Task: structure prediction
Amino acid sequence: MDDFKDIYLGRILKKWVALYPLPEYGRARLLWVASHLSAQQRPLFRQATENQYLNLRDHGVPDWTYKLFPWASLSPFKVPM
Amino acid sequence: MGLLYDRHRKMVFRTALAITGDSEAAGDLLQDVFLRLHRFACHIDTRRPLEPWLYRMTANLAYTWVKRHHRWPRSLEEVAEWLGGSKKNTPPEVTEVDEESRQIQQAVSALPLPQRMVVVLYYINDLSIREISDILDVPVGTVKSRLHYGRQALKDNLGMLQGKAHSEMRYEVT
Result:
């Protein structure tokens, strides 16, 4: 395909997608959903810092419980904000 | 994340729209992409540009959406809406005149999905062959081949627009 047609094809495709408006309030919706993600879906580095207040291993809980029940070290023992 | 959303939302939305042909789906995919960005932020190398990651995630999610929605037959409600000429999926400014837009949408949607993805990334996002190859994780030769056949198919499907292409481009040059 020659250059003229190639350039024109690019132009009409861009013009076509530009006709559709972006979702309304997309930013607000996204930030709201992100702030309400569950603990398991939050970035992993945040989970690590939130667990610093209790280490079940220090209380004699065996290691296999961490593997089977990772939630055991999370929600019930978080320091309330 | 709001800043990243503002900076890249158009690119993500338009890529998803061109691949799926569905503006509602593109809106949902736009949200999905940034939620995944938020969720996997710790795994992303911040020293490198973010765009390739966004393109890759958008292309993958759009690909999955198209595969899923073309597998199952449409519901009766959808068929009735289509027969009745519902414009639910089309904004008012598009319904008025744009026979050309409808032809373009049909031509792009008629492309096989692998070709469609390459064509969209090349023409709408102005990416190079090498960049498309990295994003889609396919060899450069495969990208060139898909682009060639995609162009050819679009040229055939948009044949009546070709004459307009020549006259418009010559007018701009002179």
